[in-house]
Design a protein that fits this description.
The protein is mostly helical. It has 2 domains: about 140 residues, no CATH class; about 150 residues, no CATH class. About 70% of the residues lie in helices and about 0% in strands. Helix 10 packs across helix 17. It is globular and about 60 Å long. It starts with a helix and ends in a 5-residue tail after the last helix. The relative contact order is 0.15.
C-alpha cells in the first residue's frame, strides 16, 4: 500500500522545470494577441447591446443567466463603466484594449500573473456575452488561460524573472500543474475519439466530407475533394485512432513523440484545410506545453542545488506508466 502511494505521489508530483510554463505563456500570449487583432474592427459590432449589433449582447447574456448569474460577462463591465459616466462603446473599447495588452504582456512575460488573470477574465466575459457566435477555440482558450493563471509564475524565461529575481517555485509543484493539464488533455481526446467511433460518419468519410464542404470552412474546392474522396474514410479512421489512443500512447517514451507528432499534424491540417487557424494554434500550444517538454524533468539533487529547500523527484520518463 505504501509503495502504491509513493508511486502515485511520484507520478503526480514529478519534479519539473518551468520550461513548459514558458511555452504555455508564450503560446497563449500569441493566441490572445491574434484573437484580439482578428476582432479589431468587429468588437463593438459583435458585443454591442444596440440594434446595430450582429446579435444583441443582452439576448446572449439573458440566455446565459438561465444557466448561472455568476458567469463573467461584458455586461458587468458596461454596467460598471456606466456608473462612472462611460458609454457602452468606450467601455467595450477599453475592455478590448486590456485584452490585447494582456496578450502582449504574456508574450513578453511582463506582469505575467496579472496579465493571465486579466486575459482569462476578459476572454471568458467576451465568450459568455457572445455565446451564440463562439465555438471550440473559445473553450480551449479559457481552459489554457485558467491553467496559466494558476501556474507557479513567473517562469525563468520571462521579463518578470529577470526584473524581480524571485526564487524558482518548488519543482514538484510545477510538475503537478503540468500533470493535471496532461490528464485533462487525455480525457478530452479520449472522449472526443470515443464519440467519433460510436457513429458511422467518421468510418465512411461522411463526417470528413461535411466538415470540409460546409461554409465557412470550405477552403478546399469541392471538385478537388471529390477526386480524392476515397481517402476521406481513411483520414477519418486515422483521426479516430489518434484521438482514442491518445491517453495510451502519449505516455510511453517510445511512442510519445510519434503520437505527439500525429496530433500536431492533425491540428495543423485542420488549420490549413478548414481555415481554423486559431483553433489549430491553441491545440498545438496545449499539446506542446503538456508533452513536448517531458524530457526536461529535473533530478532531485540538481534542483535542490538550484533552489533552496526545493523538492524533486525522479524523471518523468521513469515515472510515467506505460499506459493510462
Amino acid at each position: 500500500m505504501l509503495k502504491m502511494r509513493e508511486r502515485l505521489e511520484g507520478f503526480l508530483f514529478s519534479a519539473r522545470s518551468t520550461t513548459w510554463i514558458a511555452l504555455l505563456r508564450i503560446g497563449l500570449g500569441l493566441q490572445v494577441t491574434t484573437y484580439s487583432l482578428s476582432l479589431w474592427s468587429d468588437w463593438t459590432y459583435l458585443f454591442g447591446a444596440n440594434s446595430d449589433s450582429l446579435i444583441s449582447r443582452d439576448l446572449s447574456e439573458a440566455i446565459l443567466s438561465l444557466d448561472s448569474s455568476f458567469i463573467p460577462r461584458l455586461g458587468w463591465l458596461v454596467t460598471l463603466g456606466g456608473q462612472i459616466g462611460l458609454s457602452e462603446q468606450v467601455t467595450l473599447k477599453l475592455a478590448f484594449g486590456c485584452l490585447l495588452c494582456s496578450g502582449v504582456c504574456l508574450l513578453l512575460g511582463f506582469l505575467s500573473r496579472p496579465a493571465a488573470i486579466a486575459a482569462w477574465f476578459l476572454h471568458l466575459a467576451a465568450r459568455s456575452s457572445g455565446g451564440l457566435t463562439t465555438y471550440g477555440v473559445d473553450n480551449f482558450m479559457t481552459i489554457g488561460l485558467f491553467y496559466l493563471m494558476l501556474c507557479p509564475l513567473p517562469d525563468r524565461y520571462s521579463i518578470d524573472s529577470w526584473l524581480w529575481k524571485r526564487r524558482t517555485a518548488d519543482p514538484r509543484r510545477i510538475g503537478f500543474h503540468q500533470r493535471v493539464l496532461q490528464l485533462h488533455l487525455c480525457l478530452i481526446y479520449f472522449f472526443g475519439g470515443l464519440a467519433k467511433c460510436l457513429g458511422t460518419g467518421w468510418w465512411n468519410g461522411n463526417s470528413m466530407w461535411r466538415s470540409l464542404t460546409r461554409s465557412p470552412f470550405n477552403v478546399i474546392p469541392a471538385d478537388f475533394l471529390l477526386r480524392w474522396s476515397n481517402l476521406l474514410p481513411l483520414i477519418g479512421i486515422f483521426i479516430c485512432i489518434v484521438e482514442i489512443g491518445y491517453p495510451v500512447f502519449i505516455w510511453p517514451k517510445g511512442t510519445r513523440n510519434i503520437w505527439l507528432a500525429c496530433v500536431l499534424a492533425m491540428h495543423a491540417a485542420i488549420g490549413v484545410t478548414m481555415g481554423m487557424y486559431l483553433f489549430a494554434l491553441i491545440m498545438i500550444v496545449l499539446n506542446v506545453a503538456a508533452f513536448a517538454t517531458n524530457s526536461t524533468a529535473i533530478p532531485f539533487r540538481k534542483e535542490q542545488a538550484r533552489t533552496a529547500g526545493g523538492l524533486g523527484n525522479k524523471s518523468d520518463d521513469e515515472e510515467a506508466p506505460a499506459s493510462v
